[in-house]
Amino acid sequence: MAGTMDLIDRQQSGNVRQRVVVIGGGFGGIHAAKGLAHLPVDVTVVDRRNYYLFQPLLYQVALAVLSPGDIAQPIRSMLREHKNIEVLMDEVVGFDVPLCRVHLKSGAQLEYDYLIVATGSTHSYFGKDEWAAVAPGLKTIEDATEIRRRVLLAFELAERQMLETGTHPALNFVVIGGGPTGVELAGAISDIARLYMTKDFRRIDPSSAQVLVLEGSPAILGAYPKDLQASARKQLEALGVQIRTGAHVTDVQPGYVMIGKERVDSVCTLWGAGVQASPLGKLLGAETDKRGCVLVDAYLNPKGMPNVFICGDLAHVEQDGRQVPGVAQPAMQMGDYAAKRIGQAVSGKLSSKGFHYFDKGDMATIGRAAAVAKIEWPFKAHWSGFPAWLAWLMVHIFFLIGFRNRFAVFRQWAWTYLTFRDGVRLITGSQLLPGWELQHDAKGELTTDPISFRQVSSAKI
Question: Could you give the CA distance from residue 46 to residue 28 in angstroms, rounded to a whole number?
């Protein structure tokens, strides 16, 4: 009611400024907010966390190269120079589209003239949500620190068990999903095991760790050209990573994964196989696809909602006969477009030009000095190995927000690259791993359940 009275007061005073509510402080939301910063509108940015996260580098937090503060920055700090923008740390729980209201978990309501929803995506376990406790995915800082805990703890428990019993379970790491996240995680685990921890342990050999990628489709990095798919596979195999394509996981349990009737033992299982859109799309009452992405028109508006814009992973945008990918580049461009479109509407000069995604290319890092890159701008090229990794490094540092973040990341990478040392190998939380104890029988001997790749640590080292 207070919001309605505010609107009436503004109308009576003749000082009517359009209100824009931006939900989500990620790539799309931040770009939209910055695009609105110099328009005669009042902007409220709502996010359930108080920080912007540079997600492409999240896996480096998960594998102990970077710390969370290197890739995150408070949203308030990023927008504090813009006097027409306020930031609320709250969670959206519903919408009243006819009355143009957003309902927040705190009980507050926000009225809007224009609404931008850019809340991204989360993990999809294809109806097997119980797998999440055993195989964490990678979307948040909490996910990253949990993955870091599990990966590092596997080596610590193996060292301790060697002292106690003279043997330990095979250090088998299973990554489910061969997309960019799965490939990056697999390569990084191999790197820290083979390069960064070899001198840190006395009783185990970390380089004996085995990493297995399970991909259900015929190739890893399915969205990439075939030559880069082949190059990525070759680079991963050079790192000692084993890849199984056409492998459909049927069960995930503590200590093992099932592929049909075949059991694959795993001291640490990670998930990179699927994503689903934020549930806010369905709360809007808009039409969605099977992943929960909101179907939008050429102007990023859901059907019948011309003052609502959907950006980033949450938007289902068709271009050239296929869906625009849910990655950082399109999200940023959608945020920019939504802000520009609102500016046109406020000025009364709406353009008929719809959103068009300008694809600059895709990159995926595989390991130390290993990557693949499909470059579309300023020239077309396919790069692999060190040139691709160097391009990936420069692009990601450039897009980090703030000089401090760029300097910190570059310094940490340089230190890691030159000294073969990881700098943030901290284990916090529980000292238990799902299924670790299940790999031994009552006498303390290793179980003999069949596995699909070599148990290199089953004998004394």
Answer: 13
Q: Are residues 98 and 167 in the same domain?
A: no
- Domain match, 196 and 218 both: yes
Domain-embedded: residue 431: yes
**Nearest partner of 446 among 432, 431, 434, 436, judged by Cα:** 436
Co-location of 100 and 196 in the same domain: no
Q: What is the DSSP letter of 196?
A: I
The count of C-alpha atoms lying within 13 angstroms of the C-alpha of 340, restricted to the half-sphere facing its C-beta, is 15
In a domain, 452, yes or no: no
CATH number where 375 lies: 3.50.50.100
Rounded-to-integer distance, Cα 389 and Cα 423, Å: 20
* Strand arrangement, sheet containing 249-253: 249-253, 256-259, 262-265
Query: Domain limits at 107?
Result: 2-48+90-123+275-347
Please report, for residues 184, 227, 434, the alpha-carbon distance to residue 386 in angstroms, rounded to integers and kept in the order given. 15, 16, 36
Predicted TM-score (pTM) of the model is 0.88
Nearest alpha-carbon partner for 131 in 32, 220, 48, 214: 214
Residues known to be catalytic:
184
Q: How long, in residues, is the chain?
A: 461
Residue 61 lies in a domain: no
pLDDT in tens, 300-347: 999 999 999 999 999 999 998 899 998 899 999 999 999 999 999 999
User: Rounded CA gap, 85 and 108, in Å?
Assistant: 18
> Phi/psi of residue 445, each to 5°?
-90, 155
Share of the chain above pLDDT 70, in %: 89
The CATH number assigned to the domain holding 282 equals: 3.50.50.60
368 near 413, Cβ under 8 Å?
no
236 and 280 in a common domain: no
Number of domains present in the structure of the chain: 2
What gap in Å lies between CA 69 and CA 141, rounded to an integer? 10
